[in-house]
Amino acid sequence: MPTIKILPDQLTVQVKPYTTLLKAVFMAGINLPQFCGRNSSCTTCRVRLREGKQNLSLPLLQEQEVLTESGIYQTHRLACQAKIVGDVVVERPT
Ligand code: FES
């Protein structure tokens, strides 16, 4: 099962493949803000990618657009959209 490590908390959880980052972070005991109701439009659920970018599902067009508009396309993913297929390390907003 894929492992997700969450910084700066140093929390680690194992999840089933295709679990969203949002759910994985929640399983670790952290609630990320979700102002748009997981509709890829608010970016409040964004997390910075530290390792394992290739182990996430590819972003769909709406996620690509909102991340690009925010200037964080290369470094972040929307936790409500990205699905985990392998080990990843992410940093949540503090
Ligand atoms: S909850 Fe708004 S983009 Fe994820």
Describe this protein's structure.
The chain is of the alpha+beta class and 94 residues long. It has one domain (3-91): Beta-grasp domain (Ubiquitin-like (UB roll)). The chain has helices at 21-27, 61-69; strands at residues 3-7, 11-14, 19-20, 46-51, 76-78, 83-84, 88-91. A hairpin with a 3-residue loop joins strand 1 and strand 2. The protein is globular, with a radius of gyration of 12 Å. The N and C termini lie far apart (27 Å). The mean pLDDT is 97. Bound molecules: FE2/S2 (inorganic) cluster (FES).
Q: What is the helix tally?
A: 2
Distinct ligands, ions and cofactors found in the model: FE2/S2 (inorganic) cluster
CATH topology: Ubiquitin-like (UB roll)
Low-pLDDT sequence parts:
none
Q: What is the percentage of strand-forming residues?
A: 25-35%
Helix content: 10-25%
- What characterizes the major β-sheet? 5 strands, mixed
Give the CA-based shape: globular
CATH class reads Alpha Beta
Average of pLDDT: 97
Please tell me the total number of domains.
Answer: 1
Q: Could you state the order of secondary-structure elements as H and E?
A: EEEHEHEEE
Q: Please identify the structural class as seen in this structure.
A: alpha+beta
How far from one another are the termini? 27 Å
Rg calc:
12 Å
